[in-house]
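Exercise 7. Given the encoded structure of a 191-residue chain, write a plausible sequence.
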C-alpha cells in the first residue's frame, strides 16, 4: 500500500482569517506531506506492508506508529473544517454533549482548557466511549484514542506548527479561532 496525502475539501485560503493560507501551505503541504513520505519509507521491509492506517495506529510502535498516527490525525483534523459549516452541534450529537457535559458551552470550555494545558506537543480529542458517553482526552505527540479503543469524533492539533505562523505563542487565541471553522455536520456524521 502506498500512503497518499488526501486532498483538502476547501481552498487553501478558505479558512482565513482563522487559519491563514501560509499556515495551510506549511501545516498541510509540508508537515502532513512529510508524515506521509516518512511512513512510505519506514513501511518498506517492516513486515507491516499493506496495513491500513487504523491497523498501524493500533499495532505499530516507534516511527511507524508516529508517522501513521500523524497522517491519520492530520487528515481527521483538516477534514473537520469548512468555511461555512454549522458552528454548533445539532441533532443526536448535541443531545449526547448535553448528557455528558451539561451544555455545549461547557463542553467547549472543558475542551479548550484541556487543549490549552496540554504540555508540549499533542492532540486534544472529543471521543465516544464504549458506553456511548462522550469524553475529552489529551494525547501527547502522535497519540490517538483508537489505541485505547475509543471512537474519535473531533480533534485539535496543539503542536506549535499548527498555530505559530498565525498566533506565535498564543495558543489560547488559536483555540478561540478553532471553534469558528469547525463544522458540526461533519463531527455529527462521525457520531
Ligand atoms: Mn500538525
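Solution.
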Amino acid at each position: 500500500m502506498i500512503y497518499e496525502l488526501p486532498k483538502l475539501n476547501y481552498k487553501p485560503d478558505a479558512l482565513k482569517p482563522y487559519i491563514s493560507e501560509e499556515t495551510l501551505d506549511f501545516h498541510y503541504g509540508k508537515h502532513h506531506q512529510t508524515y506521509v513520505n516518512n511512513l512510505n519509507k519506514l513501511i518498506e521491509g517492516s513486515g507491516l506492508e499493506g496495513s491500513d492506517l487504523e491497523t498501524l495506529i493500533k499495532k505499530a510502535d516507534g516511527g511507524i506508529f508516529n508517522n501513521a498516527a500523524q497522517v491519520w490525525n492530520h487528515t481527521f483534523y483538516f477534514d473537520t473544517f469548512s468555511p461555512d459549516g454549522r458552528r454548533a452541534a445539532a441533532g443526536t450529537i448535541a443531545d449526547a454533549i448535553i448528557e455528558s457535559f451539561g451544555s455545549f458551552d461547557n463542553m467547549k470550555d472543558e475542551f479548550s482548557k484541556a487543549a490549552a494545558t496540554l504540555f508540549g506537543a499533542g492532540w486534544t480529542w472529543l471521543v465516544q466511549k464504549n458506553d456511548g458517553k462522550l469524553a475529552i482526552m489529551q494525547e501527547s505527540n502522535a497519540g490517538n484514542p483508537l489505541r485505547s479503543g475509543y471512537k474519535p469524533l473531533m480533534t485539535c492539533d496543539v503542536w506549535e506548527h499548527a498555530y505559530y505562523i498565525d498566533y506565535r505563542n498564543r495558543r489560547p487565541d488559536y483555540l478561540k479561532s478553532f471553534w469558528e471553522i469547525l463544522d458540526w455536520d461533519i463531527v455529527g456524521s462521525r457520531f
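Remark. The radius of gyration is 16 Å. Students should compare their own answers with the one above.
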